[in-house]
Amino acid sequence: MIKFGTDGWRAIISDEFTFANVGKVARAIALYLINHKLNKKPLIIGYDPRFLADKFAEEVSKVMEDAGINVYLTERDTPTPVVAWEVKDKKAAGAVMLTASHNPAEYCGIKFIPDYAGPADEATTSEIQENSNKDLVLPMAAKKGKVERFEPRQRYMKYIESFVDTALIRKAKLKVAYDSMHGAGRGYLDKILQNFGCRVEAIHSQRDVLFGGKNAEPSDENLGELKTMVPELSADVGLANDGDADRFGVVDEKGVFMNANQILSLVFEYLVSEKKYTGSVVRSVATTHLIDRVAARHKIKVHETPVGFKHIAKIMMQEDVIIGGEESGGFSIKGHIPEKDGILADLLIVEMLAKRKMPLSEIWEELIKTTGEVYTKRINLKLEEKEKQEFMKRLRDETPQELAQAKVVKVNKMDGVKMILSDGSWVLARPSGTEPLVRIYAESDKEQKLAVIL
């Protein structure tokens, strides 16, 4: 059965992710466009650098062509945020992105991005999933659709300039180390930074369908080379993106990895203090409460959502939101599309360094002097589907009343089970929507306490 997770359908190539099944999903998307009277507008199709992703994208194009839907198909592997932005730029019906994001190399995936250029909501996903599991025969098109290849890089690069102070960055002449992780971000972030006058040293800048033998996830354990490289080059910062460049990774000038919780808090504070952004802030249930501390200082409303950027995007489309983010590295800001953009996140870090004229480690120290220390950690429990369900049912039914010698004062079952302790620490257990895992998240103001919780 084809089953959509938090962000589209992902499966192992040649096991479940086959040309036949991709064709089924493509026909379901085509039917969605026809039924919702969107088939007269063009559809954007993009793909990441994974094995056969380009060929799967061509398969989707053929289905759309036969259904009478015009297609813009990217010339090369392209970042998801760029494909999403092109929906707005070309006033398209939506986009289909062939990507498994940060999943291991043996996976591929497919996601539908609706006409608002953000993640598909539950109703849209359910409709497409239901029809993906049927033997559909599409209505006969009066005329075949047209497939046109295009390269969106220059237009996106020009557009993204509007969110950063390019003159400030040019004046700073920063040295940046960049790891695209063999992903779609290569030729995007590095070129943008060079255009802004930065001295860029890039690694892993070639397509590799195995991503160098690592997950294309910009995590602490996967960015060892970047962490070594930054102090060796005396670079101001190290930046990275995942396989489809919708997530970010940051290494400070000392070669120390900074997690997404830290970066989201820093950029949020910077947007409010220096760029004078107004509005609310949105974070997922698994994201740091340091954001709440920054928000409290500035009297800003905080929204908490289930995990999955589609929930954050929904609020971003309803009201003025300064920043929406999640601990896995998903991020967007006011005025941009309601979709994760790791390229923009990295650019705002560079602007912040240029503006503050301080090393990143010192900017972080300045923040926690005002908010207090915070330590976060995530671990993964590998469990098959049945084991995942049993584990979560037991936790929901028998939620502990005490943990790490502290009382559980609040239980949040919005997404998984989140236990908030009397000292402000918290722990969350939730099943992954894309992998055979239960993720355990925890946060405390003391590192020793965090170790006890986990």
UniProtKB/TrEMBL annotation:
Q: Which GO terms describe its biological process?
A: carbohydrate metabolic process; purine ribonucleoside salvage
Under InterPro entries, the record lists: A-D-PHexomutase_a/b/a-I, A-D-PHexomutase_a/b/a-I/II/III, A-D-PHexomutase_a/b/a-II, A-D-PHexomutase_a/b/a-III, A-D-PHexomutase_C, A-D-PHexomutase_C_sf, A-D-PHexomutase_CS, Alpha-D-phosphohexomutase_SF
Per UniProt, residues of the Alpha-D-phosphohexomutase C-terminal domain are 379-450
Q: Name one Pfam family in it.
A: PGM_PMM_II
Q: Which GO terms describe its molecular function?
A: magnesium ion binding; phosphopentomutase activity
Q: Where is the Alpha-D-phosphohexomutase alpha/beta/alpha domain?
A: 2-134, 155-255, 260-369
PROSITE patterns given in the database record: PGM_PMM
Superkingdom, taxonomy of origin: Bacteria
Task: Report the cofactors.
Answer: Mg(2+)
Residue stretches spanning the membrane:
none
Is Isomerase one of the keywords UniProt gives this record? yes
- Keywords assigned by UniProt, alphabetized: Isomerase, Magnesium, Metal-binding, Phosphoprotein
Cross-referenced PANTHER family, in alphabetical order?
Answer: PHOSPHOGLUCOMUTASE 2B-RELATED, PHOSPHOMANNOMUTASE 45A
Q: Which family does it belong to?
A: Belongs to the phosphohexose mutase family.
This chain belongs to the protein called Phosphoglucosamine mutase
From which lineage does this chain's organism come?
Bacteria, Bacillati, Saganbacteria
